[in-house]
Amino acid sequence: MACSNSFHGCVSFRYENYCSPICKSKLFSYLNCNWPLTVVKNKSSKVVRSVLSITQDTLTSKETNIPVRRLDILRLTDGGETEQVLFNAGKFGRFGGIFVPETLVSCLKKLEAEFNMARCDPEFQVNSFNYDFLKFLDFYVWNTSFSGTFYHLWSLQQTLRDYVGRETPLYFAQRLTDYYKNCMGEGPEIYLKREDLNHGGAHKINNAIAQAMLARRMGRKRVLAATGAGQHGVGTAAACAKLSLDCTILMGNVDMERQSSNMVLMKHLGAQVIPIEGTFKDATSEAIRNWVGDLDNSYYLSGTAVGPHPCPSMVREFQSVIGKETRKQAMEKWGGKPDVVVACVGSGSNALGIFHEFVRDEDVRLIGIEAAGTGIDSGKHSATLAKGEIGVYHGARSYLLQDDDGQIIGPHSIGVGLHYPGVGPELSFLKDIERAEFYTVIDKEALDAYALLCRLEGIFPALEVAHAFAYLGRLCKTLPNGTKVVVNCSGRGDKDADVVFKHLQEQTSDGIIPIF
């Protein structure tokens, strides 16, 4: 009989064709990474009806006002079993799923099968030592022949170490810590998870290199990707160059103007960069259409935790190395876990990368910071979790910025990587069950935080990350002395230096950049 279980508490799959009985038992013993005991009482949801977008490019949804009772209790045990099966077909509670044309379903199922086979390959021995998930995936990805070449067992782990530059430091920001101390000299201790030191300058390479390996394993010769800030584009182009894959990056012309340095880097790395009218959301739509036209030869490499299953789960798993390292490094530095973990939130890849490891640790606060743009009530923002409603976009159900007719509202943020009208289904779920907290920061606060970190620590964060640093001013006042705060510094900000300089000049009448 076919069995199903949840992987990291979220992804159900059928595996009777892939696993031996011995492999199954070892697999689920190894993958003991489920959600915490969570009680959700008297929550309400709405019945969703589909409305076809006027442009007919994508299917969006708008909720009707028909309240229904949610489950009184949502209980997920450490054993990977649930009182009710809520996680199947890539569902995170009421979020996620596969909302795509029939032509894409079989391709996504193949991708899911390939991804799941990695976890229960009968030839793979789950040893007693605790390797990260990415090491667990190595055998499947590279212990195979491609074009007559044989790759050894741990090449993904070695690539992450020797090519990407893992593990990245957990850096104690002494001067930033001192800056936020109160008049009594007390305050939290602030640590930075330095993903900006990865090859390519961002966390995006973690997922890009792993998915490029999967693409090669599946025999695909051409990789397609969409990018906004360009960090995923650079990571994908670098991975494809290393693995000798053709690379096509689609990028909105608006984003190209704002992130021209990353566009140049992608071209240097051998990628074909195609401009698309609009921004990241438009580039994503076009990339998916391009992929549909060449399913047999191309691979769509998603860099965000959005889209149809299994894309959000794959991205989160490949990025979860961030949180795993953070737990290990925190134990080494102070003998415990972080008290608070902070990350910026666009679509969710960097936030989930560090959050997921601590979801079961209910004593660890998880705080996501969205972009409020020119103001949360101005209509010019990217605060999807703060202001969005549930709908379907780019193949999955999640919170979206949409109008009363279910049409997508254009987002705004000074950080191009946060410029997306949706958010991943898993973060939507974490909001619903109140496991994570979400707040907003306006453009000016992010610009000030960028400048502050440059002057105090000699680190220039990406403007996306600067939103997370900006929230520290409000957060630190509320925390007890000695609280351990970890901020995911997920990207480097040299790409934003000209934008910051220009905005700071515009804020001064004499054109002189202010010093604190």
Automatic annotation (TrEMBL):
Pathway: Amino-acid biosynthesis; L-tryptophan biosynthesis; L-tryptophan from chorismate: step 5/5. Its cofactor is pyridoxal 5'-phosphate. SUPFAM superfamilies: Tryptophan synthase beta subunit-like PLP-dependent enzymes. One of its GO terms (cellular component) is cytoplasm. GO terms for molecular function: tryptophan synthase activity. The keyword Cell wall biogenesis/degradation does not apply. It comes from the Eukaryota. CDD domains: Trp-synth_B. It catalyses: (1S,2R)-1-C-(indol-3-yl)glycerol 3-phosphate + L-serine = D-glyceraldehyde 3-phosphate + L-tryptophan + H2O. Its EC number is 4.2.1.20. Keywords: Amino-acid biosynthesis, Aromatic amino acid biosynthesis, Lyase, Pyridoxal phosphate, Tryptophan biosynthesis. InterPro entries: Trp_synth_b_CS, Trp_synth_beta, Trp_synth_beta/beta-like, TrpB-like_PALP, TrpB-like_PALP_sf. Residues 166-491 form the Tryptophan synthase beta chain-like PALP domain. The keyword Ribosomal protein does not apply. It is an enzyme of class 4 (lyase). PANTHER family: TRYPTOPHAN SYNTHASE, TRYPTOPHAN SYNTHASE-RELATED. This is Tryptophan synthase. It comes from Handroanthus impetiginosus.
